[in-house]
């Protein structure tokens, strides 16, 4: 009887850890998808230095706002996001944050969100909230890393 109880308990614990992991992945997929949708809904919003609302965004303001609407609180600046949130990834997925710096040795000064198909959404000082390719000639050389929240 004790052997059956221990076996049942082991199976229950094993299954609960599988479902907990699946739930975490489903939750992450939800807030990444939601953050992308929120950012896309703001395409064309003008750039505003320090902007954190649909009246105007800077790069980190757009990311903070989009993830906030999806239920995830992020720090205010690109550097704080880079140094304090998520984990580094080498193979990017939609919803991952892409960080850029003037040179490889400096702290990040720009953040964008990967949306798939080689594209990212960001707040550009010249065009406002826009979609561009990750391999564009301006941003690609400034890329310093990606993080998954």
From TrEMBL:
| GO function terms (MF aspect) | cysteine-type peptidase activity
Domain NlpC/P60, by residue range, is 29-149
So where does this one cross the membrane? none
Does Protease show up as a keyword for this record? yes
Q: Would you indicate the residue range of the signal peptide?
A: 1-20
Write the record's keywords in alphabetical order, separated by commas.
Hydrolase, Protease, Signal, Thiol protease
Question: What SUPFAM superfamilies does the annotation carry?
Answer: Cysteine proteinases
- The lineage's top-level taxon is Bacteria
What GO biological process, any one, is recorded here? Answer: proteolysis
Per the record, the similarity remark reads: Belongs to the peptidase C40 family.
Identification of the protein by name? Endopeptidase LytE
